[in-house]
Specification:
transferase, 19 helices, ATP-binding, 2 domains, EC 4.2.1.136, alpha/beta, binds ligand NAX, 485 residues, ADP-dependent (S)-NAD(P)H-hydrate dehydratase, kinase activity, seven-stranded parallel sheet, Rossmann fold, single chain
């Protein structure tokens, strides 16, 4: 498990770190950054370094790291971009032989433009965890001024990103970020993770706070969470999943739901739907049974058009929502919920579906860009309103439990971009539904399903395009591989 901590808790943990003289943590942070920078420069045979220096302690880290690199004989230009700069850090950089330039507003001087264009490595120390989201107006041009060949190494976080990882903003995009002691939300959350690049954590001796704000499952977490059957298990004890999905128009969604659940090792699947998908399923997934019966969880809504749905499907879906069984709602099924349920509930929208649901529930005044700008915040509003866990699909998938649960957000980024293909969400719904039926909580079921779904996509065709049905067929082998690590 990778854990990230809220910024206030990080500050508190840093303040509680005693036994060091003043500035010791900064020296350790700077030494860690300098070591990583030196290694990357050696790998590429580079030696020209530009240090971007903001007005806070993050700029101080970058200046001390720049001083170390200059002392090692690298050519270092420190560009001061804030209203002030860390004094002793600046002194150290100057004494080590760094050239100091200023770009405090307006357009940069020619020497700054040339240094950025020619740099082998840019050390980004404009903002750290005290930064507000966004780049100051004069720095908006910065990302374009950095040469294409430069390796961008961010100190603690890429400048301009929201430290809490909630808001999308103008930011530096790093090839690598060196952070201290443990990850911060910015490194794991959907709108900010893409700017982070490779994440390297340097231990500077700060103790981990007690409660994480964001978690991420790794492959090593799967064996402890995956429902492995024992000798006394049978199909019922392993969990029966009821699926209400598809219709005469959308016949593929049930195929992918059911195939995914069966391949992932559910005890049994019962499908409820009209003639067409039922006939297809009878011939293509012979393990599936049909019609109502006892189940341990429901997955409802993939390819279900509520306006034109079959009456029997709607009746059973509504009864499921009123029952005390765990329910997963996907796609059209999201139109069926207006109020909180007493049983575990997992919603699996993509961004457009989340916006539609949030607007229907009137959780805020939301413009068309609201989910793109602040995905986890909107998911949280819906989670709180419905007392449900919201799994928001994307390149970084966020599984957001209601605030009252006190549980951390989980984010997963395991799949290749090839996974953004029709039917992929139907596979995820079947897989997560199978895990709910096996008794996992919505948070565990959603995050574990997101992990396995992503890894299976890569396993199915490493480095290339993948069709959703191949991901569904791959699930069992991927689970076996991860169980046997
Ligand atoms: N506190 C500690 O014990 C340690 C702190 N460290 C470093 O200190 C950083 C935090 O330092 P600070 O609290 O000074 O925070 P920052 O370095 O993020 O600086 C905050 C200041 O930057 C300016 N600023 C804010 N938003 C901006 C924006 N969008 N664009 C430009 N300037 C902006 C403001 O003047 C603000 O006061 C960490 O990220 C880490 O790099 C490390 O040295 C390790 C130890």
């Amino acid at each position: 498990m990778i854990r990230a901590y809220a910024i206030d808790d990080v500050r508190e943990a840093e303040a509680a770190t005693d036994g060091f003289g003043e500035g010791e943590l900064m020296q350790r942070a700077a030494a860690g950054v300098a070591a990583v920078a030196a290694a990357r420069l050696d790998e590429q045979g580079g030696e020209r370094v530009v240090v971007l220096v903001g007005s806070g302690d993050n700029g101080g880290d970058a200046l001390y790291a720049g001083a170390e690199l200059a002392n090692d004989g690298r050519s270092v230009v420190a560009v001061l971009v804030g209203s002030s700069a860390h004094e002793s850090g600046l002194e150290a950089a100057r004494s080590a032989g760094a050239v100091v330039a200023e770009w405090r507003d307006g357009v940069p001087a020619g020497e700054v433009v040339a240094a950025l264009a020619d740099a082998d490595l840019v050390l980004d120390g404009v903002t750290g965890i005290g930064g507000r989201p966004g780049l100051r107006p004069h720095l908006l041009a910065l990302p374009d001024l950095i040469g294409d060949d430069a390796y961008v190494l961010a100190v603690d976080l890429p400048s301009g990103t929201d430290p809490a990882g909630l808001q999308r903003s103008d930011a530096v995009y790093a090839d690598e970020t060196v952070t201290f002691s443990f990850a911060k939300p910015v490194h794991l959350m959907p709108p900010t993770e893409p700017a982070t690049g490779l994440l390297t954590v340097v231990d500077i001796g700060v103790a981990e706070p007690a409660v994480p704000a964001v978690e991420r499952l790794t492959h090593a977490d799967l064996p402890a969470l995956w429902p492995v059957p024992g000798p006394d298990d049978d199909k019922y004890s392993r969990g029966v999943l009821g699926i209400v999905s598809g219709g005469e128009r959308y016949t593929g969604a049930p195929l992918m739901n059911v195939t995914a659940a069966v391949t992932a090792g559910v005890g049994m699947v019962r499908y409820v739907g009209p003639r067409q998908p039922t006939d297809l399923l009878r011939s293509l997934v012979p393990e599936c049974v049909f019609g109502e019966g006892r189940v341990q969880a429901w997955a409802i809504g993939s390819g279900l058009d509520v306006e034109h749905a079959d009456d029997e499907q709607l009746r059973i879906a509504r009864e499921a929502l009123e029952s005390d069984l765990p329910v997963l709602l996907d796609a059209g099924g999201l139109d069926l919920i207006d109020e909180s349920r007493s049983a575990p509930t997992l919603l699996t929208p993509h961004a457009g579906e989340l916006l539609r649901l949030a607007r229907r529930l009137e959780v805020g005044d939301l413009d068309d860009d609201a989910v793109r700008r602040a995905p986890v915040s909107i998911a949280r509003l819906v989670a709180d309103r419905l007392d449900a866990t919201v799994l928001l699909k994307g390149a970084v998938t966020a599984v957001v439990p209601p605030s009252a649960s006190g549980l951390p957000v989980r984010t997963q980024a395991d799949g290749p971009s090839w996974l953004s293909t029709a039917g992929s969400g139907d596979v995820l719904a079947g897989l997560a539904g199978a895990l709910l039926a096996a008794g996992l909580s919505p948070l565990d079921a959603g995050s574990l399903a997101a992990l396995v779904h992503g890894v299976a996509a890569d396993d199915a065709n490493p480095g290339g395009p993948v069709r959703a049905m191949d991901v569904a067929h791959q699930l069992g082998r991927t689970v076996a591989r991860l169980l046997s690590r």
